[in-house]
């Protein structure tokens, strides 16, 4: 299956803003996060097709996945 | 009191009461600065210091702001600017909460910090700054941590809680407290070039949703630090939201979060649709 992966803020450093990825059927968000060299602790927001997603959400063909880093300072 | 009102009315020029007349009333009638401001606003007299508010904020609304109590939780990067703006626009009562003192690494961005205030409690600096810029505003300093256990004491009477904390777990406690206490909360967070803002009204769980993936520790601010401009931007958006809540006007950032990237100059809106209540399945 083919998904569109969008990265935001510091996740773009040394990576990309947007890319298409060919993934095996049944891949979940967590697997994509780990494949980017990111840890679960770094994830702020998971958006799947414009809606709030989960790390264990299963991806489907033509999904758009957006990942934002955790921001918590003041 | 009647004499004071007469004096204020007679001192009004072009519908405006000058600061010097306000100050003179304080001395002449033995009143406190906030008492003079209350008398003026209650009698339809616009203090001249707010004249540039006038076409956005009516005198009734200015009085509403003056009678409002806003709690600012955290008096560092975000909190300093939040307090500055609330005082300038004329919010009458600010509760400033922070356990810390100023340190040198605060000087690049925290507007209440100066070389002279190093070692001074942040909440004391807030009191001094507001006394300097708008003596009619009352600041209640609380040099302590915010947590669930002391929330009802610290936030008593607050009409809005502005989140200027730098810790995710304390923020989640604030969100939980505000839900229980029925206080609207304006949430803001920053890290490096990035920040976000959202408004949560009682019954909403937006802040809990924003941090639902949080496990432990801090966000990207730990590696990036914070520059001068990110807290100023996010704090200003928070104050706009707080004022709209107090005045009951405009469109709030409710059920959505504004994510700001100042490096690429991108703004993204992320929606947090309400979780619909679980429907009861009744067996036929």
TrEMBL record, chain A:
Source organism superkingdom: Bacteria
Gene3D superfamilies, per the entry: 3.10.20.30
Name of the protein this chain belongs to: Molybdopterin biosynthesis sulfur carrier protein
Gene: moaD
């Amino acid at each position: 299956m083919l998904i569109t992966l969008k990265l935001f803020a510091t996740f773009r450093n040394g990576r990309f803003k947007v890319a298409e990825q060919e993934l095996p059927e049944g891949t979940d968000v967590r697997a994509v996060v780990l494949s980017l060299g990111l840890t679960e602790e770094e994830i702020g927001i998971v958006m799947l097709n414009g809606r709030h997603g989960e790390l264990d959400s299963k991806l489907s063909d033509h999904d758009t996945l957006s990942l934002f880093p955790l921001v918590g300072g003041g | 009191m009647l004499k004071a009102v007469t004096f204020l009315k007679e001192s009004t020029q072009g519908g405006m009461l000058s600061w010097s007349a306000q100050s003179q009333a304080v001395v002449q009638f033995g009143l406190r600065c906030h008492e003079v401001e209350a008398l003026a606003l209650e009698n339809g007299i616009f203090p001249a210091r707010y004249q540039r508010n006038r076409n956005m904020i009516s005198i009734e609304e200015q009085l509403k702001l003056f009678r409002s109590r806003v709690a600012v939780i955290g008096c560092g990067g975000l909190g300093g600017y939040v307090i500055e703006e609330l005082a300038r626009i004329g919010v009458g009562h600010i509760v400033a909460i922070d356990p810390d003192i100023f340190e040198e690494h605060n000087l690049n961005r925290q507007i209440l910090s100066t070389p002279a205030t190093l070692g001074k409690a942040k909440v004391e600096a807030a009191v001094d700054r507001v006394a300097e810029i708008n003596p009619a505003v009352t600041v209640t300093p609380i040099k302590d941590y915010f947590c669930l256990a002391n929330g009802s004491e610290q936030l008593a009477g607050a009409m809005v809680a502005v989140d200027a904390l730098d810790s995710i777990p304390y923020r989640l406690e604030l969100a939980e407290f505000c839900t229980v206490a029925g206080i609207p909360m304006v949430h803001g967070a920053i890290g490096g070039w990035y920040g976000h803002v959202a408004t949560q009204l009682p019954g909403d769980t937006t802040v809990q949703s924003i941090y639902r993936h949080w496990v432990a520790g801090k966000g990207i601010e730990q590696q990036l630090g914070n520059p001068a401009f990110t807290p100023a931007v996010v704090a200003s958006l928070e104050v706009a939201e707080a004022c709209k809540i107090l005045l009951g006007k405009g469109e709030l950032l409710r059920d959505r979060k504004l994510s700001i990237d100042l490096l690429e100059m991108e703004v993204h809106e992320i929606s947090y649709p309400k979780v619909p209540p679980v429907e009861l399945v009744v067996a036929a």
